[in-house]
Design a protein that fits this description.
Blueprint: H1 3-14, H2 23-42, E1 48-52, E2 55-59, H3 62-75, H4 79-85, H5 87-93, H6 108-115, H7 120-147
Antiparallel strand pairs: 1-2
Helix pairs in contact: 1-2
Length: 148
């Protein structure tokens, strides 16, 4: 099986049109196939960032993301508590959670500069996300045009 056949199969699996399935079930099936399709097209593994306790942990391989999703399904809403207190989970993901991490306090002026929608930081972030979105749409249109 070559890449084009694989991509066609992945596109078909990600576009489930079965009316007998609930929308939630279709969404649950569709999202992983879209991630896999994007990964096969670009040749890059996806990344997922988990933020809690003022720390960020990035999972940048399929293995780590599948492990994270399995743990997320098992513990449900207690994921952050388990990551902080459960040494086994920290060993599995090879992370160290700083249990004494302190929240950074900002002055009113700093808050306005950093968190206001009209701040330079927010404007730069919006431009960056817009550029990434248009690039992604261009890639999807280009790849869909080739397969038709």
């Amino acid at each position: 099986m070559d890449i084009d056949e694989l991509l066609d199969t992945l596109y078909a699996l990600s576009a489930d049109k079965n009316k007998q399935r609930a929308n939630k079930d279709k969404l649950t099936q569709r999202l992983p196939f879209k991630d896999i399709t994007t990964s096969v097209e670009t040749g890059e593994a996806p990344t997922e960032t988990l933020s809690f306790k003022f720390q960020n942990f990035t999972f940048d391989s399929w293995i780590r993301i599948i492990q994270l999703n399995a743990v997320r399904d098992l513990v449900g809403k207690g994921l952050h508590v388990h990551f902080e207190a459960n040494d086994l989970i920290q060993d599995i993901f090879d992370i160290q959670v700083d249990r004494e991490a302190q929240k950074i306090s900002y002055s009113q002026k700093e808050k306005r500069l950093l968190f206001s929608p009209s701040s330079p930081y927010a404007k730069a972030k919006t431009k960056s996300l817009s550029k990434a979105r248009s690039l992604r749409e261009h890639v999807m249109q280009h790849s869909m045009g080739e397969s038709l």
